[in-house]
Amino acid sequence: MPRKTENVGPRPPTVGVVGLGYMGLASAAAFARHGVSVTGYDVLPERRATVRSGSSPFHEEGLGELVRSEIQSGRLRVADTLAELADQSTIIFLCLPTPPLPTGRIDLRPIRAGAEELGRALARVNGFRLVVIKSTVVPGTAQTVNAPVVAKASGKGPAQVAVASNPEFLAEGRMVADALRPDRIVVGVSDPRSEQLLRSLYAAFDAPLIVVTPAGAEMTKYAANSFLALKISFANEVSRFSERVGVDIDDVVRGFGSDPRIGEQFLKAGPGFGGSCFSKDVRAFVRAAKDQGVRLRLSEQVVAANDEQTRHAAELIRGELPRGRGAKVAFLGLAFKEGTDDLRESRALPIVREIAGEGVAVRAHDPVALPKFRDWLSKEPAGLQARVSTWATTAEALTGADAAVLQAPWPEYLAWPKAWTARMRQPVIVDLRRAFPTARAHAAGIRLVRLGDGTSMRPAALSTPPTRSPGQNAPRSAGN
Ligand SMILES: NC(=O)c1ccc[n+]([C@@H]2O[C@H](COP(=O)([O-])OP(=O)(O)OC[C@H]3O[C@@H](n4cnc5c(N)ncnc54)[C@H](O)[C@@H]3O)[C@@H](O)[C@H]2O)c1
Question: What is the biggest distance separating any 2 CA atoms in the chain, rounded to whole angstroms?
């Protein structure tokens, strides 16, 4: 049975979504659930076929079910050509990749090529079309790159084709909820008609609509991601200091985060941020500002601080392993967080590289990301490949391990049956996410070492910083 829509109101404009990747597919399915007629298109034929059959090509909580119900309802369709999509849609969203270049700038080739292909398709279409850049692009891109490309390829003027910006703020792992119920919608427009179209599209979404210029919208996205990355890195720095002097970072965050001017969200200590966006976006923000003669000193430090935190996480693991060769680690959770199979910028990758590079045998497990992890591993040097193995079950990964590293706290890891402890050579969990319940650790007879938790250290640590070498235990959490 087709599911009912989130909202019923006046007929919204029809929508096209070009690029059915993580962001595009979640957005397309959410528009459809809100009663919008959506046509999707992706350059990859297999991706089109998967979506058309009512499935998601990647793992994202609840997305497969949403896609299936919206395909069944007929509100979400997949076109085989851009011409078909352009014909059927009034508002066309470009949800194309903007990958990082070694310079830090984003690679504009995919979005430029997509705009050009779409422009050619628009040349044969009657009536007004609004092209909206939903990809994350540096301020000025929609107006100085996309608009001229679309105009030239379509041969149409502003009365027939306009270009606007509508950055996307959803987060992987909770994409469906974010896409269906965004906390705000930012649109950047340069004419009243585009504003009116986007207002009528988003009327079905119960979220404040912030209307600015296209460059203002593009800047907003970078400011948001850079600030979130800064917040995480700040918490991680305080966490490293806390660990050293015998303080639990969560106590500190509760205290300073409860100030409403600060807020507790995104102050959770961990192994550093990962994912496709934060690192890429902060670098692009810094680079784009530099290109305009502006230095963003704070943002410049964010990625370096993040890398330092990841090295610290590796150090914490190292501190739990026996000296010499032959150490084994079960690595639990490989994607950049739980709830997704996205490996892009996952902190698991540099940590695995570092500890396996030192001779440690890494036994890797993830409930959904193993295929992508194997693909990543196949491109690593042979020496590394020889030291990293992948296992279909957590129990197998734990066999003979000197420590289990919790990198992405999937619920199945947190449920830890006692039988898992018995499989390990040393019953230790290094919890990089501060997620493992202390009571469960007690019940399962396992020692918990939590990043950012130095509460078992004596106050003397304040005057004599502890030095740890491989084989010595890291600071333990209060309950151990
Ligand atoms: N992933 C996220 O959580 C997220 C959140 C907010 C913003 N963004 C931004 O959204 C953009 C897309 O990110 P993503 O994670 O969805 O990327 P992705 O790589 O998962 O998806 C991009 C899709 O575009 C398709 N594609 C490439 N060129 C094409 C073309 N010419 N025509 C049609 N399809 C084409 C690819 O096959 C792929 O399916 C990026 O700018 C990213 O920064 C992503």
Answer: 77
**Is 95 marked active-site?**
no
Radius of gyration of the chain (CA): 24
Q: Could you tell me if the CB of 172 is within 6 A of ligand 1?
A: yes
Q: Is 344 a pocket residue for ligand 1 (Cβ < 6 Å)?
A: no
- Give all domains of the chain, ordered by start, each with its CATH number: 15-212 (3.40.50.720), 278-462 (3.40.50.720)
Tell me how long the chain is: 480
Residues 82, 145, 277, 398: which is the catalytic one? 277
Beta strands in 373-473 (DSSP E): 388-390, 403-406, 428-431, 447-450
Atom index in ligand 1 nearest the CA of residue 276 equals: 1
Q: How confident is the model over 461-468, as a mean pLDDT?
A: 41
State pTM to two decimals: 0.90
Helices H, strands E: what count in the chain?
20, 14
393 CA to centre of ligand 1 in angstroms: 31
- Structure tokens given for 66: 């949403």
Between strands 129-133 and 91-94, the pairing is parallel
Q: For ligand 1, is residue 25 a contact (CB within 6 Å)? A: no
Mutate which of 18, 56, 96, 341 for ligand 1? The one with the most ligand atoms within 8 Å of its CB, which is: 96
What pLDDT score does 6 carry?
A: 53
